[in-house]
């Protein structure tokens, strides 16, 4: 099949899948009894009506429905409106700034720590919602959160952002996002999503300080987080950017490759754009190391013990679809387009839950469905897969396919 036909089919299939994903979240996740959205749905599609509700989940719901509206893939903002009001009413800390990590099922504060990762995601979502709704208060919330982030988390001496704080912005002993993370002061993951937040905020609020900090973040990635030899990202660092982990995360590598380019393009700094495009291709080439024979991208590689984690998670495949497609756009090298298409083929064949909807969490290294993982939860959200659909549709540019 010629390339244009492949792309037409790719866009058509992803437009249909985007509609399926959004329909799942519309039909299954609205919490009619307690407000907002349910905090958890199991892999077997059972609703846990008493589960805590996470700000990252709610921010990602807000982003997904706002972004779909902005792309003219949906005509209704009601779910985005619902997510926005729940975040504004229950997650934003009006006393100390920032956002709570979780609230209980009734919407009362539960875990009140200030995780910078969560603040960044809320900025990202609020700015996307502002683009969709024009609601000035949403932009004001985003700017206020940005100022909290800079005031309390920014490391003026060494650059970058500290990981987490108490509700009152005091130091914490345990800085981790999750149990699998290292307890270090700076992480690649948080910086990646601060980058994402700054890129979106700058699009609606072209503040000069913000632009400088966005450029600085790109330099932090290129100079401190990215290994200049392997072109893989380090994951955990101390405050002086000394690397504290030897693990490679293939999903984050391919995700960062295109997000860094997007951030550079937002700054309109021509030299930075050129250098970051080169880095994006190099990172995509390095990520090819993590591809299995079935076209799926593995989870991670531990270099210290040579332990290869061959789990195949939903979000990693979604980012592979976009990151490899981006590298193909930059180089016209066929292996990148094939890698993007193969990632989608793996999703279609294995990850789509054709009975209940949405995507399964993933498969373990033995090719078995990962049981016990959420369909909806603190980490399972409509962000990576919706964004992959939206990005590929936009990049192919076939807005009239199936319309």
Write the SSE topology.
Elements: H1 3-28, E1 40-41, E2 47-48, E3 53-54, H2 55-70, H3 78-91, E4 102-103, E5 109-111, E6 114-115, H4 116-133, H5 136-153, E7 164-165, E8 186-187, H6 188-204, H7 208-225, E9 236-237, E10 247-249, H8 250-267, H9 270-287, E11 300-302, E12 307-309, E13 312-313, H10 314-331, H11 334-351, E14 362-363, H12 384-396
Antiparallel strand pairs: 1-2, 3-4, 4-5, 6-7, 8-9, 10-11, 11-12, 13-14
Helix pairs in contact: 1-12, 2-3, 2-4, 4-5, 4-6, 6-7, 6-8, 7-8, 8-9, 8-10, 9-10, 10-11, 10-12
Account of the 3D structure:
The two termini are 23 Å apart. The protein has one domain: Glycosyltransferase (Alpha/alpha barrel). Helix 2 (55-70) packs parallel to helix 4 (116-133) and helix 10 packs parallel to helix 12 (384-396). The relative contact order is 0.13. It has a three-stranded antiparallel β-sheet. With 403 residues, it is mainly α. The protein is globular, with a radius of gyration of 20 Å. Helix content is 53%, strand content 8%. Mean pLDDT is 95; it is low at 399-403.
Provide a compact summary of the structure.
With 403 residues, the chain is mostly helical. It has helices at 3-28, 55-70, 78-91, 116-133, 136-153, 188-204, 208-225, 250-267, 270-287, 314-331, 334-351, 384-396; strands at residues 40-41, 47-48, 53-54, 102-103, 109-111, 114-115, 164-165, 186-187, 236-237, 247-249, 300-302, 307-309, 312-313, 362-363. It contains 12 helices and 14 strands.
């Amino acid at each position: 099949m010629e390339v244009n036909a492949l792309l037409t089919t790719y866009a058509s299939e992803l437009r249909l899948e985007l509609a399926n994903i959004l329909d799942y979240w519309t039909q299954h996740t609205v919490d009619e009894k307690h407000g907002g959205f349910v905090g958890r749905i199991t892999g077997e599609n059972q609703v846990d009506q008493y589960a805590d509700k996470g700000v990252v989940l709610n921010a990602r719901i807000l982003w997904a429905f706002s972004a779909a509206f902005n792309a003219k893939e949906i005509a209704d903002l009601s779910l985005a409106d619902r997510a926005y009001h729940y975040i504004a009413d229950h997650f934003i800390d009006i006393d100390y700034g920032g956002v709570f990590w979780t609230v209980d099922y009734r919407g009362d504060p539960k875990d009140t720590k200030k995780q910078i990762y969560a603040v960044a995601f809320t900025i990202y979502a609020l700015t996307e919602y502002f683009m969709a709704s024009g609601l000035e208060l949403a932009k004001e919330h985003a700017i206020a959160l940005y100022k909290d982030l800079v005031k309390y988390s920014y490391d003026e001496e060494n650059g970058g952002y500290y990981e987490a704080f108490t509700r009152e912005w005091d130091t914490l002993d345990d800085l981790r996002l999750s149990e699998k993370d290292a307890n270090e002061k700076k992480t690649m993951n948080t910086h990646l999503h601060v980058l994402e937040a700054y890129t979106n905020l700058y699009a609606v609020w072209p503040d000069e300080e913000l632009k400088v900090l966005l450029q600085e973040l790109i330099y932090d990635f290129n100079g401190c987080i990215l290994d200049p030899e392997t072109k893989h990202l380090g994951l955990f660092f101390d405050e002086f950017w000394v690397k504290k982990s030897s693990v490679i995360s293939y999903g984050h590598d391919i995700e960062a490759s295109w997000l860094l380019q997007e951030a550079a393009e937002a700054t309109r700094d021509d030299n930075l754009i050129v250098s970051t495009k080169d880095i994006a291709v190099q990172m995509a080439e390095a990520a090819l190391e993590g591809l299995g024979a079935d076209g799926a991208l593995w989870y991670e590689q531990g270099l210290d013990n040579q332990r290869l984690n061959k789990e195949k998670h939903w979000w990693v495949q979604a980012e592979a679809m976009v990151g490899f497609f981006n590298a193909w756009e930059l180089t016209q090298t066929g292996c990148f387009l094939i890698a993007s298409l193969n990632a989608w083929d793996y999703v279609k064949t294995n990850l789509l839950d054709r009975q209940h909807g949405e995507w399964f969490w993933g498969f373990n290294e033995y090719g078995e469905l990962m049981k016990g993982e959420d369909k909806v939860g603190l980490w399972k959200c409509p962000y990576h897969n919706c964004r992959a659909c939206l990005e590929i549709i936009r990049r192919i540019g076939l807005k009239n396919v199936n319309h």
